[in-house]
Design goal:
Layout (H helix, E strand, L loop, with lengths): L5 H7 L4 H49 L10 H12 L11 E8 L1 H9 L2 H18 L5 E5 L2 E7 L4 H16 L2 E3 L2 E3 L3 E8 L6 H18 L3 E3 L2 H32 E14 L2 E17 L3 E3 L1 H11 L2 H21 L4 E7 L9 H12 L7 E6 H5 L2 H13 L3 E7 L6 H4 L4 E6 L1 H5 L5 H17 L2 E5 L4 H9 L4 E3 L7 E2 H17 L5 H4 L8
Parallel strand pairs: 6-7, 9-11, 11-12, 12-13, 13-14, 14-15, 15-16
Antiparallel strand pairs: 1-3, 1-6, 2-3, 4-5, 8-9, 8-16, 8-17, 9-10
Helix pairs in contact: 4-5, 7-8, 8-10, 10-11, 11-13
The structure holds ligand C2E and calcium ion (2 copies).
């Protein structure tokens, strides 16, 4: 039997109403399904369109990110890709392509234009320069890598003579005047060149060589530099020279800072009680900076240290502190004065880079005081951001002999879990608790806890900001043996501290010999 049309089927079903109804329903359902399918198809198509549009937009965005908006030339991002693609996976042993990299740096005139003329004008000039290069190299491999730097990749067999000719033509082209009503602007450039395969066959090596050639041309003022082996040594030599200039400048800066900054020393004493008197056993000190501002007079570190932190000036200031304290330590130890050590405050920012390790290493190399006489005080907040990195820096310094104290202990939140991992010898109980320790039960509880904790961890607790005998006695009874505060001594200039040390050593000399138990200096940090 052949296929029946719907109407034939209906005709045959005449009189069999039940089945007829079933078939009608089925047909209705099929119709519905067809409609749904059509709807689904349309929706899928719409969705595909949206996806297409989004892909197009993200491609557009990506390619826009790879274009310098001022010149419309591809930037360093595209350069990386295109050059990698250019070299493909050819082996450096069997180079198949030859050519040159030309690194073009605009001269100071461009910086002047940028600083002094309206932005639209400097942008117009930059655009024009890009256009000239694009035209000259027929749109191939011209990249705008930095504000005033371009890189051109030219393919072909060049020797130094032929490539120099091209570079000269390029410089002439760049140097053409930009004409504005009333005046002309000339921008010059310097070109550094590396040839491949002669000067290497890896992208990074060639770019580096072009850069070295550019530096060389800038130093010698030759306008064009073509890389050769000797240049590398010359550039390294020049960098050494630069470093020594920086050191000399640093020296000069330190001299200048000497005129305004001053280092004060506040004794930190380990004591024992004899009757009702505290007898100093050993003297340490905290180095505290003072600023004699030419106009404002004495500015408290509480005022300028946070500002110096914010602006980054804490780095040179911190270095000045390190150098100055190191100089004093050398003098005092040369005189064999009875000094246990000096602590320096280090700000969080000084720990942001590894430089602190290098600076301290340099200081230790250039001075003769024993490294364990230098302590560094850091606050809990230094640890908060990257505890593990800071601990590793501390460890490096500790390996050189440096000791650490945690300053303002009890005011931060985070470090408790890290303190035992740090190479720390001392915890300095924050002044705010000491201030109220004789009459505030809460402060007493905190102080007791800190003392107990320090003992548990094998650290020495130092009470800071002790102003009265009552405070000292309370703390002594709780087990504290190391004190700092106006009750014992105020911060003083280096010359006065020297006198203080001499007096202490005289007094110690006039006392009967101490038994070895009580005369023991502050124990070494338990690390
Ligand atoms: P700090 O590290 O907590 O230093 C202790 C501060 O308490 C010093 O204030 C000291 O003069 C003061 N002080 C000591 N004993 C007493 C006392 O019995 N009573 C009272 N009321 N105060 C006492 P200073 O010298 O004004 O320094 C303030 C802060 O500035 C220091 O607090 C420290 O955080 C910072 N600072 C000082 N020098 C340097 C430095 O060379 N480098 C860095 N990064 N920070 C420094
Ligand atoms: Ca301190
Ligand atoms: Ca403190």
């Amino acid at each position: 039997m052949g296929l029946l049309s719907i109407s034939q089927l209906m005709h045959k079903l005449d009189g069999q109403e039940d089945i007829r109804q079933v078939v009608m329903d089925l047909l209705e359902e099929i119709k519905q399904l067809r409609a749904d399918k059509r709807g689904l198809l349309t929706r899928t198509q719409e969705l595909l369109q949206v996806i297409d549009e989004q892909t197009r937009r993200s491609n557009e965005l990506r390619s826009r990110m790879e274009i310098n908006p001022k010149t419309g030339l591809p930037n360093h991002l595209r350069m990386d890709k295109e050059i990698a693609h250019f070299f493909g996976n050819q082996s450096p042993e069997k180079p198949q392509r030859s050519g040159a990299f030309l690194l073009v740096r605009l001269d100071k005139n461009y910086d002047t234009v940028q600083r002094t003329l309206k932005p639209q004008m400097s942008e117009w000039i930059l655009y024009q320069l890009g256009e000239r290069m694009r035209t000259m190299f027929r749109d191939r491999y011209v990249f705008h890598t930095r504000e005033s730097e371009f890189l051109i990749l030219v393919e072909g067999s060049y020797n130094t003579k032929t490539i120099e000719k091209i570079a000269r033509a390029l410089r002439r082209e760049i140097h053409q005047p930009h004409i504005f009503t009333g005046y002309n602007v000339h921008i010059g450039c310097t070109v550094g060149i590396s040839l491949f395969p002669d000067h290497g066959y890896s992208k990074s090596y060639l770019l580096q060589n072009a850069d070295i050639a550019l530096q060389h041309a800038l130093d010698q003022d030759t306008g064009i530099g073509i890389y050769h082996e000797g240049m590398r040594d010359q550039v390294v030599e020049r960098m050494d020279l630069q470093n020594s200039i920086i050191k000399a400048l640093e020296h000069q800066a330190i001299k200048e800072m000497d005129k305004q900054f001053d280092m004060y020393y506040q004794p930190i004493v380990s004591v024992l009680k004899e009757g009702t008197e505290f007898v100093v056993q050993r003297v340490f000190a905290e180095a505290l900076i003072r600023w004699h501002h030419p106009r404002l007079g004495l500015v408290s570190p509480g005022m300028f240290i946070p500002l110096a932190e914010e602006t980054g000036l804490i780095i040179p200031i911190g270095n000045w502190v390190l150098y100055t304290v190191a100089r004093h330590l050398d003098q005092w130890f040369a005189q064999e004065l009875p000094l246990g050590g000096v602590s320096i405050n280090l700000s969080p920012r000084q720990f942001r880079t590894e430089d602190v390790v290098e600076n301290i290493r340099r200081i230790l190399d250039n001075h003769s005081f024993p490294p364990d006489k230098l302590w560094l005080e850091i606050t809990e907040s230094t640890l908060i951001e990257e505890p593990m990195r800071i601990i590793s820096l501390m460890q490096k310094l500790h390996n050189k002999g440096i000791r650490f104290a945690v300053d303002d202990f009890g005011t931060g939140y985070s470090s408790l879990s890290y303190v035992h991992r740090m190479p720390v010898g001392h915890l300095k109980i924050d002044q705010s608790f000491i201030k109220k320790v004789t009459d505030d039960a809460k402060s007493q509880a905190i102080v007791r806890t800190i003392i107990a904790m320090a003992k548990e961890l094998g650290f020495d607790a130092i009470a800071e900001g002790v102003e009265t005998k009552e405070q000292a006695e309370f703390l002594y009874n709780e087990g504290v043996r190391i004190f700092q505060g106006y009750f014992f001594a105020r911060p003083m200039p280096a010359e006065d501290f020297l006198v203080y040390l001499e007096q202490q050593s005289d007094q110690a000399g006039s006392r009967p010999p101490e038994d070895s138990e009580t005369a023991s200096p502050i124990p070494d940090p338990q690390v």
